[in-house]
C-alpha cells in the first residue's frame, strides 16, 4: 500500500475540501493508494501523538460543498520555523524539518500534497530539496499568484463581497449615506476591484493605487450632486493613501495578523471627515464572512481540477511542482517558478480600465 | 381626488417597500384615491420646497423584492422635535407640528400612513390627537413590540445572521477558534437568540439575561474538551454582564446611534482573555448587512398584509390605529395600546427553553 | 440505560434533521438516555437485520443546516399496512404492528418519537392505543394541519418558490411572456398563495378556489394592456377549474404519487390557448427543488423547538401526544385531536384578502 | 450629438443589463454621445411606430444586478428573415434589411451595438457588410463560442444548476432514489459538465459524448452497492444515446424551440427502467430557472467588461468586430473569425478528465 499525505496550511479558504475530496476520489481509482490527512497542517505530523486521519470516500462524502477544511489548518510557521516558547516567555522558532522527514518515513508516506499559500509553497520547495516527494496546490483567496490564472476561493470571496455591496446599497440609498465596505486584500486589491465593478460601487481603493483623499471627496460630491444622493466605497484592507500611510499594527504574536480589521475603513471615514465630507458615513467590515460558507460552483470546479491533477502528478512521480490553471488547462509548474512572482492589479490593466469605464474612482 | 400620504421613518428595514407597494395597489382599486410619498419621513413635508412623489403602480413595480425604502427615511426627531442648529453651533429642537398639519391641509392630504418604529408611532399618536387622520404601520427589525406577533424585517435579519453563523462555523472549525458574532438588538435579544438556535451556536448573550463571564468560559472549555475544538458565540449589541456593564457611548450628535458597533464583541473578547481563555478568538460585526438586501418571503408577505390593511383602515376612516399581526389575522390596535408594552425575551420563554434544550449557554 | 427510538416517515422536508439534532441534544442532558435512529421509518425496525444507528452528539453535529434526513425516510405504508408482493406479482398489504411492538421491546426501546405527516400520526395513534409510548412530531411541507400554527419546512418551500417567481419574472419581462410556475399543494394551496404574494404574481390558482379560465384570461389581458407586457401565474399542483377537472393519474404502484408533476401547468397552458391567449407561454415545474436544500432559519428554529419539546414529553412520560406550535408556545396535543382537522385556505381569510388587495386574481 | 443604438437579441441571459449599463456609463464620459435602446431587438426599429428608449445613467441605475434585459429581446428572425404571415395562414419570411438601414439613418444612428448569440452575430456581420457601423457583443448562456474564453450568463447558469444538484442530493439520500436533473445545453454540454463536477453528481450525459445506457446502469448499481444508496444524474437537454437518438420535436412555429423541455429526462428514466433499474427514480427540469435572477459577480464583471470595450470600439470607429475575453484581456475579433467555430466539450479535455478523476460516469 502506498500512502499520500494531504495537508492544508494557512488561512481557510472556500474550496479546500473540494481539493481534498478530489485527491481521495482520484486515488481510490488506483488499487494500491491510500490517502492520509494530517491534522492542522504540519502539526498533525510533528505533534505527539501524531494526529492523522485516513481519508476514504466515505470520509470525504459531499465535503466539496462545505467551507473550511475537514483536516484543519493553522497559520503557524511550519517545520522550518516551528514556534517555541523561550524560557523568558517570549516566542522563538526552531527547525524541525529533519525530524518531520524522519517521521514521514516512519509513517510510510510516499508523497505529500501540500495545499497552501505562498508560505506553504516555500516550505514545500525546501522539503522537496531535502528529498521529499512533494506536490503543491496553491491556495490564496486574494488571487495574488501570477503562475496561475486563478486560485479557488477567490471567486467565492468576490461573490460574498458583491452581495454585501448589494445589501449596503439599499441602506445607503434610503438614508442618503456614504457607506464604506472593507474587504480582504492586504497586498493585492483583486477582491475589492471585482466587488466594486460587480456591485456598482462609486469608489474603489486598493493597495496598488495609492489614493488622494481629495479625489475621493470629489467623486462623492459628484455622486450627491447628480441626484444619486449616496455613495458606496469598497476599500481593500491594505489600501494606502498617497502619503503611503497604512493602518498597520506590527505584532509579534504567533499566528496573528498584522493589520487590524476595520483599520482602513475607520481611517478612511476619519480622513473623509477631515476633508470636509458633510454626509452621514457608516462602515462595514466583512472580515471572516468572506472566508466561510459553501464555495460557489466556479471554485468547487477549480479546486476539484487542482485535486485530481495533484494526485495524477503523484502517480506520475512528477514531484517538486505546483498545479496551476492556464485556461483551459491544468498544468504543473516547478516550485521555483510557481512562487517567483506575485499577481498585482496593474493601473492600466483591462479590469481597472473597465472600472474607470463605468465611472469608478480609484482615488488617483 | 382623495390623497393618502405615506412616509417611512427610522432605520431602514427589509419589507418597507413591500408595505408601500401594497398600499398603492390597494388604493389603485379605488376610483378616487391617490398615494403620495413623502421623501425622508416628515422632511418631505416640512422642507422647502416640499419633497414628495406620486406613487402609482408603475412607481412601485417590483419594489417588494428590494431592501430599503424608495421614499427614503431618516432617524431625525420628527415634527415635534425638529432639530435646529443654535447660534452657538449646538443642536436644539423646535416643535413644528402645527406647521406640518397646515402644510398637509394645503397639500390636500386626507390621511397619513406612517410606517415606523416606536418613535414614529408616538408622533403618529400625537398628530392623531391634534386631529390628523393617521394610521400606523409598525417597523422594528428587533421585533420588540408586544402588540403584534411579529414585525416585518425581523425574519430577514434572523436569516442573514444565521447565514453568518453558518459561514463562521467552517472557519472556527478549521482553525479551532472561538468566533464571536455581534448582531443587532439593543434592548431585545430576539435576533441573537434565533440566530444562535438556527445556527447551532454554543453561547448566546442577550440584553435580557446578564451574563457571568465565568459561565461563558466554562461552556467554551466544555466545547473544546468534548473534542468539538471550537466555539461559536452570538452576542446582541446590547448584551451586558452581571455587573451591568454595557459598552455605551453617549452621543449628542443628531442621528447617531449611542452604541458603538463592535463594542460588545470587543469587550467580550477582552473579558474572555482576562478570564483566561487560551484559545484563538476572532470577532465579526454584522452591522448594516443585517438591514439590507431583499426581504425573505415571510417578511414580504407580512409587510404586504400590513400595507393592504393600513389602506383599508384609511378607506374605513378607522384612524388612530396601528396595524398588527395576531396569527392568523391582521388587526388594528389603538395607538395608545399599540406602543404601551415592549416585547422582551423572557428567561423562561419557550424559545429560551429550546435554546437551553440544545445546550446553548446564556451565561446565567 | 433508557432508549428513545426516532424515525422520520413520508416525503422529506427541510427541518427533519434539526428535529433529530434537538432530540439528541436534549436527551444528552439526561444521564440515562440514549437516542436510536430507525433507518427508513419503520423499515429499520421491521427489516432483517434491523437497521438502526445510535444518534449521539457527534452523529448529529451540524445536521440542522442540512436538508433531508440522516436516518432516511419512505413513503411506504407502515406496520399496519406493510406492502407485500402477492404470488401473482401484484401488491397487497399485511399488518405487522404486533411484530413491530415485540421487536421494539426486544430492542429495549422505552419510547418512540415519530416525525411524520398525517399518515405517520395515524400510525402513531394506533400504536399508542396498542400500548406503545409514542410522541408525534408533525411534518407537512404543505402546512395543512390545523392543530399547529405552522409546520417546519413550509417556510423554506415558500422561500424557494418565491425565489423561482423572482427569477421567472425577469425572463417574462424580457420576452413579454406568460410564465406559469407549478408548486406543491395537492389539497392545500398555502405555498402557492404565499409565493404569489411574496413574488408579486398576477394570478394564483389553488385547490380551495376553483378557477374560471375566462377570469384568468381577463386578468392576463389587463396586465398586457396596462403596459406591463407580461404575466406571472403561480399554480398549486392540485388546482382545479370550476368544472372540477383535475389532472390526476391513479396509480397502484407502491410509493408513487397520484398526481403527475407538471400536469396542472400543462393543462393550464392548454386551457389558456383554447381560451384564446395570444401570448407566448412557458411553464416551469419546481418539483423536488422545493423539498431540498438547507432549511431557512425560521424552519430550523421551529424544528428545534419541536425536537426539544418532544424529548421533554418523553421525559415527562406524557405520551400519546403530538407537539404543536401555538404562538409563542410549543404545546402538546392528543393524537386524536391533532389530526382531526386539516388546515385549508379559506376564500375570505386574511391572506387571500391580502392577495386580492394587491390585485392577484384567484380565478373566481 | 452622436447616437449609438443598443439592442439585445435571442434568449435572455443573466448579464445583459450589465452590458447595457456599462455601455451607457462609458458613453456618458464622452460629451457628444447618446445611447438609444431598441425595444425587442430589431423590432424596435422596424415596427411602426418605432419603439426605442433613451438610455441615460438614471435609466440604467443598478440594473447590473437584475436578470433579463430592460430593452426586451426576441427569438424572432431579424431583418434579413423577418417573419411574415402568408395569405394561407402559414409563416414565411421577408428581407427588410435595406429598410432597417434607411430607418437607422433617418433616426441619426451612428453605430449599433448588437448583443446577441450566434444568429445575432451573423446578422451583425451581414449588416456590417452592407455598410452599417456594427459592434457585436457575444451572448450565449451555453458558452459554446470558441472565440472567447467565456461568455457572461454561463457561470450564473452553472451556479443555479449546481444549487439544484445540492438540493436534490438531500432528497435522493433520504429516499434512496435516482434523481435526474435536466439542464440547458442543446449542442454543448458545458453547463451539465460543470454542474456535475461542482455538485458531485455520479453521472453526466452531454451531447458531445453519446451514452450507453448499460454503462449508466452499471454506475448506478456501483453507487448503490458501495452503500451510498442513491445516485444523481445531470443530463444536458441535447444528450443522445449511442444509437444517436435524441428527443427532438421539429416545430415550424415562429419563436418556439425544437426540443421539448423535459424530453431527455423522461426518455432517460424510461431507458433506465427498460435497462432494469430497480430503484425509485424522479426527474427535475430546471428550464427557465437557469436564465433568470441576479447574475453572479463573475458574470456581472465579464458583462461590464464587454460593455465598456464595445463602446470603446465605437469611439475608435473600429467596426465589424465582436468583443471577446482572452484572459486577462478583452479583445476585438472580426465577425468572420468570431463566429467561425463553436466551442464543444472534448472527450479528453481537462474538465472531462477532472470529471472522470472524481468518478463521474459519462456513459462511454
Q: Which residue ranges of chain A are poorly predicted, with pLDDT under 50 across at least 5 consecutive positions? A: 248-259
Q: Which structural class do the helices and strands of chain A define?
A: alpha/beta
The top level CATH class name of the largest domain in chain A: Alpha Beta
The CATH topology of the largest domain in chain A? Rossmann fold
Radius of gyration of chain A: 22 Å
What proportion of the residues of chain A is helical, as a percent range?
Answer: 25-40%
Distance between the termini of chain A: 60 Å
Quaternary organisation of the protein chains: homotetramer
Strand order of the largest sheet of chain A: 3-2-1-6-7-12-13
What would your notes on this structure say?
The structure is a homotetramer of 364-residue chains. Chain A is elongated. Chain A has helices spanning 16-28, 43-46, 97-106, 118-129, 154-175, 190-199, 213-225, 263-274, 297-315, 335-338, 350-357; strands spanning 2-8, 33-38, 52-54, 82-85, 91-94, 111-116, 134-138, 178-183, 203-205, 231-236, 281-285, 321-326, 329-334. The model of chain A is unreliable at 248-259 (pLDDT under 50). Chain A folds into two domains: 2-152 and 295-327, Rossmann fold, CATH 3.40.50.450; 157-291 and 346-357, 3-Layer(aba) Sandwich (Rossmann fold). The first copy, chain A, is built from eleven helices and 13 strands. Chain A starts with a strand and ends in a 7-residue tail after the last helix. With 364 residues, chain A is α/β, with parallel strands linked by helices. Chains in contact: A-B, A-D, B-C, C-D.
